[in-house]
Each structure stands twice: as C-alpha cells, then as structure tokens.
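User: Hi! I have a protein structure encoded as tokens and I'd like to know what sequence might fold into it. I'm fairly new to this, so please keep things simple.
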C-alpha cells in the first residue's frame, strides 16, 4: 500500500466505524424529517488534519523561540479553524427533508428519486452535497427557501426500488471540516417492466391478430403525430415531411377493430414470465400512444376495457408488481 492510498483507507475506516456505532440508520425513515443536533457529525478533512498539524508546528516553534507574533498568528488561525466547525455544523442542522417527485420508469432506464430540502433560517446554506450509492448533487439553499433535487439511479429489476442510504454533507466554508448526516428516506421508485424491442402484432379484441402494429383505426383522420419506429411506411405523411423536413405519421381514430385484449394465457408457452411481462408492457404502451381501448388480463387480475394515461399506469403497475407485493410500501 502506497502513502497516497493509506490516508484514504484510514479515513474511510474511521467514517465507517462512526457510521456503524453512532448513526445506526438501518430501516426506512418516514418523511418529512428534520435533522436534529445528534444526527449531524463533524470530522476534519485531509486538509483539516494538515492544517491542525501545521498549527501544532507553529505553536511549538513559537514556544521554543518565544515569538509573540507567532503566538498571535497561531491562535488567529486556530480561531478560524474552530469557527469553520460551527459554520459546517450549522449548514446541516435543522434541515428539513421531504419526498419529491419520483416518476416511474421502465426497467433499464435511469430512475430519479426526488428529495425536497427546506429550511426556515434567514441565511443561505451553501455547498450541501447529497449523495447515494450511485449519484451525488451539490446545491445551495437560499435564505428561508426550499429546493428539490434529483438523484439518478440505474434500474435493473421491475417492482419497487428503494432509494437506500443518503448522505448529506458539506465542507463549507474552508474545506477544513466535513459535517455530515446519514438517513434512509422512505422513498420508493416504481420500476415498470422493460419494453420488448420487436414484439409481434398484438391480438385484437376478438382474439385475431392485427396485421399492422397498433393502428388506431382507418376511418377518421385525426391529425399528425411524431413518427415511431413501429409505423408502417403507409402511415408516414410524406407531403408534410417534404414541407417541414421532420418525419411525422398520420394519426387515425375510430377504427372498426374494436378494443384490444391482451391476455397472459394467450401468449406462447415458451415465453418465461419476464418475457411475457415485457411483451404485454410494450403492447399496452403502444395501445395508449394510439389512443386505443384495451383490456389487460393477468392471472387473478383483469383491467379494462379502458383507455388513457390512468389506465396505462394501472396496467403497467400491475405488470411491474406481478408476483410481488402489490401493496404500496409503508410510508408511501
């Protein structure tokens, strides 16, 4: 082990020991949460340790050589260091933490946990760093204001995903002292199943298979919309493309095919559960984009017929929590 990695290892071990013995934050904490004095801890940074050793050397030299100016400079710098402890501590104490917007995402897409920070003091709180295991954000809070930050996380499995342990820390104002607090907010992210990339055409309401994926009717022209990779060449509005240079497709409403019916039992037996969920998720998303009415049938669950954003969320939620605890986690 070289000299450069040794201080980092020693410092990380010390912080882990403090975290294990003093913080003891293991389970999710209900929000809103206010950080009390006993939840905020301070330790010197690497620069702080060097600063302290420098003061010791200056004090020793001043004593040996009876330097009045040396004593004055040493005690002045020591006072500055002590003042930085209170500034760092005051930056985090009595900080209010609440849940922010946490929109659902599909598995494989980056999720975002929202955290709302508030305080009621008439002075700003600067250089607050909020981090979890995957991301870190540094923010400044205005006097008596609030701010919402987002912590992005990768998603690897459908269902509920917890934010995990969150650390709030600051080295304001001089970088000599690190003040920090650890919490596990009760914030959950709903992860939908991933969407199958190239699904077959979905069945119609009568059980037959559509020849074109998610055509939303052929009776009434409803306007133009952004082009999707699943659109057939006949749906592209070539005249509009020639005028604007942007690829758009024709959107129809009405249709005679009737509502769609997506049934778990009608999927090929060779598909495993996750592949079935991904195919059904793709079908309901495409049905919602095309303004179709559809029914989703899962073992023990039947949703629809209906359409719209709320019906889409209910269906994707049912797919995300299939085989899992479908109740909202505590505190949500």
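Assistant: Happy to help. Inverse folding works backwards from shape to sequence: for each of the 332 positions I chose a residue that suits the local structure. Here it is:
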């Amino acid at each position: 082990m070289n000299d450069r990695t040794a201080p980092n290892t020693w410092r990380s071990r010390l912080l882990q020991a403090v975290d294990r013995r003093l913080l003891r934050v293991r389970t999710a904490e209900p929000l809103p949460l206010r950080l009390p004095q006993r939840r905020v801890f301070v330790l010197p940074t690497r620069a702080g340790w060097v600063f302290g050793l420098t003061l010791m050397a200056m004090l020793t030299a001043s004593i040996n050589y009876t330097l009045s100016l040396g004593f004055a400079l040493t005690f002045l710098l020591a006072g500055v260091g002590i003042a930085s402890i209170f500034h760092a501590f005051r930056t985090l104490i009595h900080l209010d933490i609440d849940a922010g917007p946490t929109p659902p995402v599909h598995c494989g897409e980056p999720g975002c946990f929202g955290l709302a920070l508030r305080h009621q003091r008439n002075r700003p709180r600067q250089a607050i760093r909020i981090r979890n295991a995957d991301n870190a954000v540094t923010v400044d809070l205005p006097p008596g204001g609030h701010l919402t930050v987002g912590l992005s996380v990768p998603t690897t499995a459908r269902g509920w995903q917890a934010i995990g342990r969150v650390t709030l820390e600051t080295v304001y104002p001089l970088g000599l002292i690190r003040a920090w607090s650890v919490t596990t907010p009760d914030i959950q992210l709903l992860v939908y199943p991933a969407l199958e990339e190239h699904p077959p055409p979905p069945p119609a309401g009568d059980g037959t298979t559509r020849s074109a994926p998610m055509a939303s009717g052929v009776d009434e022209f409803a306007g133009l919309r952004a082009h999707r990779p699943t659109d057939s060449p006949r749906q592209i509005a070539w005249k509009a493309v020639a005028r604007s240079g942007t690829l758009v497709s024709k959107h129809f409403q009405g249709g005679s095919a009737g509502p769609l019916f997506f049934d778990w039992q009608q999927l090929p037996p060779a598909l495993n559960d996750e592949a079935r969920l991904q195919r059904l998720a793709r079908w309901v998303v495409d049905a919602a984009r095309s303004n179709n009415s559809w029914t989703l049938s899962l073992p023990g669950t039947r949703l629809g017929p209906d359409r719209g954003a709320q019906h889409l969320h209910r269906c994707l939620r049912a797919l995300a929590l299939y085989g899992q605890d479908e109740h909202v986690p505590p505190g949500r």
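A useful reference point when you look it over: The chain is about 30% helix and 25% strand. Feel free to ask if any position seems puzzling.
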